[in-house]
Write a structure and sequence with these properties.
Helix content: 55-70%
Largest sheet: 4 strands, antiparallel
Structural class: alpha+beta
Radius of gyration: 21 Å
Distance between the termini: 45 Å
Low-confidence stretches: none
Number of helices: 10
Strand order of the largest sheet: 2-3-1-4
Shape: elongated
Amino acid sequence: MNAKEKRYFLTLPMMTLGSLLVATGFNTLLIPHQLLSGGLSGVSMMLGYITGGNIAVLYLLLNMPVLIWGWFSIGRHFIVWSIYSVLCATLFLKLVPVTHVANDILLGAVFGGILIGFGSGLALRFGGSSGGFDIIASIITRRRDLPIGMIIFLMNGMVIGILILATKNWDLALYSLVAIFTAGKVVDLVHVKHIKVTAFIITTKTEELLTRLLTHPRGITILKTRGAYSSGEKDMLMTVRTKYELAELNKSIRAIDPHAFINIVETVGVVGDFRKQSPT
């Protein structure tokens, strides 16, 4: 089994587990208390509560246009895994019974947020997402240097505002906000401590890597290197990324040059424009 197949067989169960955790958080901790998770899943819950519609089907339908947007804005690899995650979550929403696990609504909000945040964080960590606002936040973070968990929290706050206007029930709205805040914090703990890293990539396939990596809005510097032992000349590509971008970066590099040497170090700070400027 080669390295690519090993990564695939690790990503697949992690994505599946993440979807199961998200669906379990919905059906056992939030939905029994009529709470929202925020995002498109929260919108699907709210529509389900109001209309009696099937939340799993609504979740899938609402995610479809966002997945299409992400296909053109983020890239196929990320969206293919996101589609898989959304389909798995939809299936698990149908299979996991809606049942009270926590009779206390606050416990339901907190631990529901933990489960959903952990599941969403797993999906993001392994190169995909659980759909909805995760994809929108990923698009935003490619253009602005902001924490993905906090972006999701702010967008979810808008959903809570709609809930307040629709139901006039402040208690449900505030408990839902607890669940959303908890999920956002867990996402950042599992997936992105919002730190920058510098990747040093030593390779003999410079042009192929540049063709792939320069599609990303981060700059790359090329340095000529010579091995002390072999005296062979190679190129070293230096690029600064956020930690959440590392999984995609590693997969891109390994797909082109499995023998590339990659050294990743934490970066204390960046002075100047972190995002690559578009040519004018």
